[in-house]
Amino acid sequence: MLPAQIKKEFRGEILTFLYGIHPLAISQVSIYQTYFQYYRTEDIDRILEYLVEKGYVEEETIQPPNTMFEIVRNYKISPSGIDLLDGTITDPGIIFVRR
């Protein structure tokens, strides 16, 4: 489990990443590939789940044709997530580290 400060910063990092590719969505696997050197997949899943539950990220689940079990999850930043990033709204559970 990640320390609270790291979780808050990682939430901000994911939102910043998704904002950078907006209006496109990105697959869960691609997010894993981006952050696997720094975070475990379980931690990435928890962060994405938190952001989806808070309404800052939209999740789309797709079952591609001709597959029985494979499910693809895609994520994109929501309008609320953009507002958070722009500073229009605030959330003490998310920290944006300016680099």
Topology diagram in text:
Layout: H1 4-21, E1 26-27, H2 28-35, H3 41-54, E2 57-62, E3 72-77, H4 79-86
Antiparallel strand pairs: 1-3, 2-3
Walkthrough of the structure:
By secondary structure, the protein is α+β, with helices and mostly antiparallel strands. The chain is 48% helix and 14% strand. The chain has helices at residues 4-21, 28-35, 41-54, 79-86, and strands at residues 26-27, 57-62, 72-77. It starts with a helix and ends in a 13-residue tail after the last helix.
Quick structural overview:
The protein has helices at 4-21, 28-35, 41-54, 79-86, and strands at residues 26-27, 57-62, 72-77.
**CATH superfamily placement:** Winged helix-like DNA-binding domain superfamily/Winged helix DNA-binding domain
Mean pLDDT: 94
Q: Could you describe the largest sheet, including whether it forms a barrel?
A: 3 strands, antiparallel
The general outline is globular
Structural class: alpha+beta
How many strand segments?
3
* Contiguous uncertain segments of 5+ residues: none
| Helicity, as a percent range | 40-55%
The level-1 CATH class: Mainly Alpha
Count of structural domains: 1
Q: What's the total helix number?
A: 4
Give the percentage of residues in beta strands.
5-15%
Query: What letter string, H or E per element, gives the SSE order?
Result: HEHHEEH
Strand order of the largest sheet: 1-3-2
Alpha-carbon distance between the two ends: 25 Å
CATH architecture: Orthogonal Bundle
The CATH topology corresponds to Arc Repressor Mutant, subunit A
Calculate Rg over CA atoms.
14 Å
Give the assembly state of these chains.
single chain
